[in-house]
């Protein structure tokens, strides 16, 4: 099957599209990347999403409008992905949509909301769409995150050494694969979320992130501010656990700076240290020797430098070493989840999300043709191999 994966992260910059050919060979999933695109949201939609995110108050009219407009822009992105990446033909679309709220109380996730009405994608492409990929895990008592743990475990399983996958989006998450032991996965805390909020704060909204870590490199860590930030109780919760902008949003940063903010460069340097420290401390108990790092945070040289230092002697590698493009890893993940759901295979790992049982991810919206699912596979895949595309 050729499957398109669509996603948008907590940065709300736009839509990532990846196309892949999947083959199921007993316990092995073979993934052949066909390419990816990154497409910006229209400025109006991007601003509407950001204006509605916590802690903002919004209306049901706004929710409906945002759901519709995300669906339409995802639909246009899917059509372009089919045309430019898949040679004009695909079998299935898997859409994560845009997370706008993750309802967490302590260590319990009560619900999760991703917007982007899949009917628009099905109508535009004629293909069935798998969407709402987190809710079934939440209904089974799980955190609904990090969903990346499935791809990480299938990709890293079988290695002789203890390895971890790290993704630094708005929130940072890790998956630890430990030989014969159960894998572990959880959100470590803020990735880029507070850094981006600080960049907007110090530039009056002109910049949405610290380009190349330049501001962070110009400053020094403020020890008192770092100590206050590290006192956050979330870091001491045991896994599985998940978090989001509902906790680590712009208002969190405002509260931390209520009694005085350091110089701009010092603020960014301190937040780089916060992300690097919380990731390193979260991984320390597992004794990993390799960390496969991806996400927007890896493009920040200041952050990558501190991670390299604090994670030592573990080495940092990239998904490219395993055949996957770092920028498209999450989109390939959602394509994989859609493929597995199509074949009746669970899309989450209870040891990683805390669910009572493995559950299939998402719900299916039919395309133009009657919905015909294949006979469910009788073998649960336990490995994933990335094959180079034929030229």
From TrEMBL:
It holds the Pfam family AnmK. It is an enzyme of class 2 (transferase). It catalyses: 1,6-anhydro-N-acetyl-beta-muramate + ATP + H2O = N-acetyl-D-muramate 6-phosphate + ADP + H(+). Pathway: Cell wall biogenesis; peptidoglycan recycling; Amino-sugar metabolism; 1,6-anhydro-N-acetylmuramate degradation. This is Anhydro-N-acetylmuramic acid kinase. Signal peptide: none annotated. One of its GO terms (molecular function) is ATP binding. Catalyzes the specific phosphorylation of 1,6-anhydro-N-acetylmuramic acid (anhMurNAc) with the simultaneous cleavage of the 1,6-anhydro ring, generating MurNAc-6-P. Is required for the utilization of anhMurNAc either imported from the medium or derived from its own cell wall murein, and thus plays a role in cell wall recycling. Belongs to the anhydro-N-acetylmuramic acid kinase family. Keywords: ATP-binding, Carbohydrate metabolism, Kinase, Nucleotide-binding, Transferase. It comes from Halostreptopolyspora alba. Its EC number is 2.7.1.170. Transmembrane segments: none annotated. One of its GO terms (biological process) is peptidoglycan turnover. ATP binds at residues 9-16. InterPro entries: Anhydro_N_Ac-Mur_kinase, ATPase_NBD.
